[in-house]
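Continuing from yesterday's entry. The apo prediction looked reasonable, so today I'm repeating it with magnesium ion included to see how the binding region is handled. Same sequence as before; SMILES copied from the compound registry.
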Amino acid sequence: MSTLRRGTTLAVVDPNGRSTIDVQRVLGTGGQGSVYKAQRRTGVDTPAEGIALKVFTDTTDWDVDPHFITQHRDAIRNAAIPEAPVQAHELTDTGAVNYTVSTMPLVPGGPLTNQLVGGHKATSSEAANLLGQMAVTLHDMDRRGVVHRDIKPANIISTPAVPSPEVRHTLIDWDLAVPTKFDGNTCGTFDYIAPELLLGRKPEPTSDVYSLAATTATMMTNASPNRCDLKERVAWARQADPQPVLKDVGDPYLKLVLDRASHAHPEKRSTPTDLMVDLLPLPAATRTWQPEDFSACADRLIVRRVGHAERNPMIEAFAAEALLRHLPEDHGDRDIIALMSQEGAPFRKAWTQRNGPPVRDSAPTQAPSVSIGDVDMNTESIPMTPFVAPAPKRG
Ligand SMILES: Nc1ncnc2c1ncn2[C@@H]1O[C@H](COP(=O)(O)OP(=O)(O)OP(=O)(O)O)[C@@H](O)[C@H]1O
Ligand SMILES: [Mg+2]
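Holo prediction written out below.
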């Protein structure tokens, strides 16, 4: 185990240039190494920046295949994940000592596990905030082609550490992150790993969505999210029509959202975008994430709605209503009208029962100029404005 003393200075050369890192104190120690609070300087005139520095244990100490570690770290580097491991050097009187380290901005607060230890059960609005903010993060990762593979309460920092209406959630610990569909060993944490990965399938954004749903169920129930052991979960993943497996979280709407986000079959599970849409109907006053956080992908949301409209009419109707409320003024509702006129009875009925006839129900006398029904829902040809997840608040 490498332990660095307070005041140790490391020199790092990474794709962003040269920097020096002054080690301050240990924040935590886990399976792959220790995490330190540290200060990074990129030049004499640049102010130091607070970072979390992970110093990996020498892999020769590990009871794992070193080839796997190398393969995995190369994959992270190739995917240009900012938190990818790099080499660092400590200059001593007797020469340089080398370490493998990774860095990320220091996030104030504490991991969600601290709240569990304190006996807390997340309320519905706390859970919705967690889901909504993480959905934004997962959406951004999807765009970058990265899957995290280890989403769980221990790897999400809450700022502030205690439950708060102003909370921001930040995903940490990118040790297992890989490019989407990475063809390598299955990794994760049992309570949170998506079932298809247990069957040897490659990780996709929906695998992270499953882990997020399990994390949210854990936070709401303060208990392990699963009702079955490993053998049963593998059998469950193989069933043709598997029932939801997460423990009941009490809130009927969030249960629907979580059941869909934790579906045993990844192709039937919510994507990060689906998850955002499913959360839109929740009252704005109960959430810290805002629809503007993802309005840039509104076109994609609408197209996806068409694809999923028959899966759950109730959620779809709420989501469409929410989209109408939140879309930018100049977007127009033509696409949604088209969606509603094409998607058949259940959806339309649910909508009108709740809202009355849509404002422009009879407006277009001719067919809309864009035929959404012809769009291939899952191709990357769907135009999408570049999307940047909001930075966590510091304080
Ligand atoms: N960016 C960060 N900002 C603030 N604290 C952090 C940050 N990253 C990590 N920490 C602290 O360090 C602890 C351990 O971090 P991390 O989850 O990355 O490593 P680990 O769990 O020890 O490693 P592994 O999961 O590989 O065994 C966290 O629980 C958190 O308290
Ligand atoms: Mg961790």
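Comparison notes:
- Confidence is low (pLDDT under 50) at residues 296-311, 327-348, 358-395.
- The CA atoms of residues 97 and 294 lie 45 Å apart.
Will overlay with the apo model tomorrow.
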